[in-house]
Amino acid sequence: MFGNLFDEEEDEGFASASTKGRTAKGGEEPPPPRGRSNLCGIRNQGGTCYLNSLLQTLLFTPEFREELFSLGPEELGCLEDKDKPGAKVRLIPLELQKLFARLLLIDHQSASTTDLTHSFGWNSSQGTNQHDVQELNRILFSALEHSLVGTSGSTLIQRLYHGTIVNSIVCKECGNVSQRKEDFLDLTVCVCGVSSLEEALWNMFVEEELFEGNNLYRCAQCSRLVTAAKSAKLKQLPLFMTMSLLRFSFDFTKCERFKETGRYSFPLTIDLRPFCEQTDAEDSDFTYELFSVIIHKGGCYGGHYHVYIKDIDELGLWEPPEEDCKPKTQKKIKEEVKELPEQKLQEDDPLSIITAIIAQESSKSVLLDQLGQKLMNKTGSSWSKRFRKHYGPIGKFLQSHNDIFILISNGTRVALKSNSLSPVADAPAPSEKTVNFDLHSEANQKPNPKIEGSHWFDLNDSTVTSIRELDIEKQFQGKESAYMLFYRKTQLHRPSEALNNPQYKVPSQLIQMAEDENRRLQQMREEFEAANNTVELHLHLAPFYKMVNGVLQPVSREPSGSINLSFDCRKTVGDLRITIYHMQELWEGDMALTVARSLPAGLHLYNTLTDDGVSLYSAGIHTNTDLFVWNGKQVCGAAVQSGAEWEPVLLTVVRPFLGEDVEQEGQNGVKCQNNSAGSEKVGPGLKREARGFAGGATLGEVREALGEPRESLLCQENKRGRGGGQGAGEGGGASGWRVFPPDDMQRTLKELSLKDGDALLVLEPDSFDSSVFTRNGDVVTVTTPSDCRWLQVEFQPQIKGDEEEQRKKVKVPATGNMLLCEVKQRAIEELQLQEQPSGVQLCLRQVDCSGKLLPPVFEELSVRDAGVRLMTTLTLCPGNAPKETQLFLHFTVGSAPSTGMKMDIIVEKTCTVKECLKAMLDAVGLDGTSWHLRRVDWCEEVGEPLMDEDASLSDLKISNGETLVVTEGLLPPKGFLKLPVWLYVDLRCVEPDCNPTENSPAEQQMERAETTDGSCAQSIFLCGGKMAELRNIGRVEISDDATLEDLKTQVLTLPALQDVCVPVASFLRVWWMEGGRLTRILRGQQVTLRKLKLTSGTDLCVQGLMKEEDLGPKQVLLNLKMGVPGERSYYPSEELVWDASHDSSPRSLRASLAAHYGLSPDSLLLAKHQPEKHVWEEIFNWTQQVSKKKKKKKAESLLGPPFHIRDGDVIGIKNLLIDSSKDFITAEDQQGQQRLREQAEQRRKGCDLLFLHISSNWEIRDLIKFPISKFHISLNSHIKTFLSVSQFCLTV
């Protein structure tokens, strides 16, 4: 089939001729690195999947691999010498060594077998033809043995795989035994007509073949034909047992081959003692575990091979595979694993199932009442549903098999007879000796249990994926089924040095070869990525941009705000963010990256890159992409709108041109602004200026941005106007403007179809009083320049004694482009205030509608940019005017602004809170560090403190004119929590009749820990009396970035717990306390306190444990109390962790409790205890309301309403088989209910007296100061109404 697989026969296993090698193509993409499993696959040459599967099996046979690596160059020669004449080079073992080293050490996804197949003598066509893997296994072993002749590895195959079978024929008349030995490297077992590997081995080595009738045997001793029996036994077992399954058969009726696809099971662990000739050795000499399954997918004329392999040395990274089965199947599998199935059972054979159930018990017997429940847990269905129709009641079934089962303990228990035989294998004690299908065999052999099914991989040519042991059962039947099985003796143990060490026993020259190859691959990948995956990015930095009318504009025309960056598009957005962080060392705070585009109106933002794990290529980033680097919130204190609907539009804003006033201003020394950047004089009456606005802004917002009053008119240039000689907008009678109707003020620029370059005329209502503009309907005609505009300035002098100087007013001519400093200077000149004392500064301040002075205006800005409307009044007051980069703030010291005197201060926007505080303290002559700043809330009361003293005022969104309060006292450390800690002490352990060994040493030490700092203690009353006490042992200060494990470690440093010895943090349980009660357990050792939502002042309680605990998100800790039959009391409580992650219904809880107590779920009655009310709430199944649209019912969950099961809840249990009472109430509960009724009556009487006292003696302000928390919820409606009115008055 393989042709001449081994071409070295002519030279006694040595090669003197060179073999053709491969040359790599230049410029090709380098091979990808290994996947997440960290294991290397093998590339398929076209039809070599069978070879790949066998080679991977040999690689993951550590003993074979290490024996092969032990052969050095002095025995095998060197591959470099294969072209030298007369050189003796053993090609096959050398190429196999090289391939194994590449699979173990080189970082590539898959390795090539071309060099190895060349050493076989194959040509290119043989690599594309598929052959049988069983035949390849034998031929390859034969080739290796032939190639290793004369070396220390000549017996390699014999030592590992060689076994012996003894065929015996026994004469039935004289008893003469004729034996013949037969060597084997693998066993070929039958599939046709049998259902399992055990049955096939039984037919081969236990069943006897009789020679009788016409088929007699000639006995050498009797010298005649006699009746005889022929049998076979395994005489010598190899270290590795290979089983070849005869899946392919021939149908003589149809004269064609076919593949056996029926169910054929095989165990993970098998005991071959019943099939051996000598059975007096130890069990480990006969026990094998499965480590490789070669699988064939397809038919008898073609298909595909892949292999399931157990990673003995744990060289790969095993991860739980994604579950692809249905939820019911998942649940059934997990329940079977949890119930410790030690035997692969025939699903339809109740005899084998019951036998295995009884054999698993330590007492080797099962109560008859519990047998049905255990069978349901094992199979997933009851006896009545699955077996009763065919086998009758379970009692009659046991009686009919009295040769196997026996009733003991007066007929209450069932056990196995000591001499019973298995109905499956008919060998002695099958459940104990013959075959063990133990899914936990790996966990039982290793001191540290691993995850069930760990370190099994599916190696499918170049692809390597993790699988579970349970996935092997899927290969029992079907077109894709097991074809070859590889077992190893369980007595073969691996040294600790070999675990997770792929270099173990690998020759140094191969390690060096692999290191050189890895360096070469890394260099190739870097060069390839640099050549093919580099993009050019244009970064725009937010500090160099400002928001102008909702459009991003550069602060200056210099290109300092734009940076070009070359970056690898395969890297993630997070990598790009880190790179920019390193480039911008002075960057503070968060950094957002947003795709931008340069438009005529300015820079516009589109989508923000939020997922740091996505590559730039996946995020759609390509060469010449513009990215805006900012904090993701604001630019210069203004919000930024992104998206296509907000694309800015560049409009040409047309305003009246005041030619005469400008000339007059020039004569008075006022600087003209008409020829500023972006503006253009169009004619005698108009001036154009290019302004950008957000496309999503409404026309009304544009009017406000231009500083125009609501009465102003906006006109659109009419390019089809009826104008005569002059163009539209150039005055002189041209009628080229259409007035926007009022409804258009609420429409956006995009909705109005305004585009870049469109003109917009801005007019005020008084403009039509002159001869410049005339309006006829919705058409505006421009004629001559407009009148001059003005601002009224009022001087407010200081009060001298009881006299107040008379206020002076003056009207100053002004335009929108005129600077406010020029307005102030002209007002000072006209008011003749030049004679004011030297050093006295004046500033301009606006006045609101109530007459309150607003903060000073920025005199560096123009009237329009400062937001000052023309024809309004400004007040000239003593004081300094802030610059545009500064803030004018009010502040008080120690009290609210309403009770103290306000003071003013001017600080930079970029100054920090600490610097601002120091400036305020210096202004009032205070010193020291025990001060901090607080905001003022909307009620003019002292509000929240400014926690981040290193943050700038602009980052904290402190606006111009805001009031701050300087408050005495230090701030707590940033990000630190102060957490009170309590100790949980179980009082049962200090009772005289209590067994002290029930608690762990850590618990006992914690119980002996005493509070030496005078801390308090409080008791927890559980059902049944006083059972636990909480002792305050101090508090801890810890960062909210610390993990729960760090918190536990710091708690153990408290003085009260210095003598407590806890092995690891998982031996400590931390409770969240609310109102002096334990509410929930904090989960996740590595979860930060911030994610656990802990805040300063949160009470925590620690409890020592007997064993480690790491609860999942939906694992609930319950306190179980089993009722004493016939009494109104309970046995001592015990803890149970209920896993509600898959099913949180009452059915699941009842099944868990039944398994815990060994009872039937139907015999249990459950109830939840509510200690605050001293009542028990029975847990039952309920039907939730079904929506008319959604016919599917919601799953019943005890974690939600109406039960809300939480950590620490007490669950009462009644066993209805022996307890007929369904009442959970105890005598203590009745006493507690009576106390609650008495307290309610006392509160009612006390509140009535309080109401009378309030109505007669208190005023309304006294009631307001009375804390509402003092009133109980049971106040009558009159008092509630009275309090509501009081709170309303307070709000008013």
Automatic annotation (TrEMBL):
* Residues covered by region (Disordered): 1-39, 665-686, 717-740
What ranges does the record list as Polar residues composition bias?
Answer: 665-678
List compositional bias (Gly residues) regions by residue number.
723-735
Annotated protein name in UniProt = USP domain-containing protein
GO MF, any single term: cysteine-type deubiquitinase activity
Show the SUPFAM superfamilies listed in the entry: Cysteine proteinases (SSF54001)
Q: Which PANTHER family match?
A: UBIQUITIN CARBOXYL-TERMINAL HYDROLASE, UBIQUITIN CARBOXYL-TERMINAL HYDROLASE 40
Tell me the ranges covered by the USP domain, including all copies.
Answer: 40-490
Q: Which Pfam families match?
A: UBL_USP40 (PF25822), UCH (PF00443)
Acidic residues composition bias: residue spans: 1-13
Q: Which Gene3D superfamilies is this protein grouped with?
A: Cysteine proteinases
Q: Name one GO biological process term.
A: protein deubiquitination
Q: Which GO terms describe its cellular component?
A: cytosol; nucleus
